[in-house]
Amino acid sequence: APADTLARRDAHVAAAQEHYYSRPPQIERGWREHLIDTEAQTYVDVVNNVTIAGHAHPGIVDAAARQWTLLNTNSRFHYAAIAELSERLAALAPAGLDRVFLVNSGSEAVDLALRLAFTATGRGRILAAREAYHGWTIGSDAVSTSIGDNPRALETRPDWVELLDAPNPVRGTYRGRGSAAAYLADVDARLDALGADGRAQFAGVVIEPIFGNGGGVLLPDGYLAGLYERVRALGGVCISDEVQVGYGRLGAHFWGFEQQGAVPDVIAVAKAMGNGQPLGAVITTAAIAEAFEQEGSFFSSAGGSPVSARVGVAVLDALRDDDLQGNAQRVGALFGDALRALGTRHPSIGAVHGMGLYLGVELVVDADLTPAPELARRVCDLLLDDGCIVQPTGDHKNVLKIKPPLCITAESVAWVVAALDRALAAA
Ligand code: PMP
Q: 6-53+323-426 belongs to which homologous superfamily?
């Protein structure tokens, strides 16, 4: 096996750019939902929300390699792949959202979406929610308040961000609240408190239809539609962050906002779009795109480059040809049911959140749902030894993040559930 490069990595890669685990395996190859390290140990990759079509997907690899041999350069040139990808994205988006900007990441997509809201309205204040993560760039970070990875996130909000309480029925302000009415009454109160001047500065809202960093807790029915209605009544723009939740992972829905029966004005998407190739997009209406054009042009050197765009098309082909969304629905249902069944035998499983292959297993200390972050850490370490890569997420770092490639088989799922059973018993 090649010499382990961890010490070399730690010597120069800034420590804030964390890797999973204190002693991470050195991963050399991937195949479908599997990762293989330099010691030839195989892992089931349960945490990966990027490689939706699976690692080293032949059609995607082939498309990337072929495009590299032909052309790869900046996105100001006219080439077929950028047209094909944008056309396919517009066809997947709701009616009226048919203008596409191509970028390299989720952070960039959210940042650009915020700029679109500013230019479309000529206003500068944004509504966001606690417990959310939207990215690391200045704009996307400003609306990110999840304290799991950034404990000081709430102390550093710029004054153009207005925060709603996390719409989380599991813990916090709204614990046990099933209906959206209480949440929306608080939104009304918050908007009222802004005063007429504050409301007149209001450019829109950015929110995930299901909070990814929160571990997949579903919003109460009607919350998103009610929120959008209020934002639109004030002349604001509704941005859906689909970076984690979108692109078929929910199984029953391609986009997260569909789960809530709401339609945004701007969609920010990335991660899954490139199956690992840096690629993201903002999809919006002609009116919003044209307002932005009044301000100037948009250029991202590698956003939608020939290779990225070609990969983007190949990922959409894989989604269709491999029926990845259908698999997310079928295998995701098995996964969710098996995890819930495990919960009847392990009291440390307080809840199983999410749907499709967007699942979170909430590990708790007691029936009061006190978070169990140490247990989550130990379980993840035991699972690693057993050959399964899972990580804790959420504000309390106690939710096992279950977001495997959408091609995961029922056999792998059964194996992961058995491994989790062993780990919970041992931890
Ligand atoms: N939005 C959400 C919901 C995310 O989960 C992430 C990444 N975890 C981002 C935005 C930022 O995406 P990226 O890391 O590609 O910049």
A: Aspartate Aminotransferase, domain 1 (3.90.1150.10)
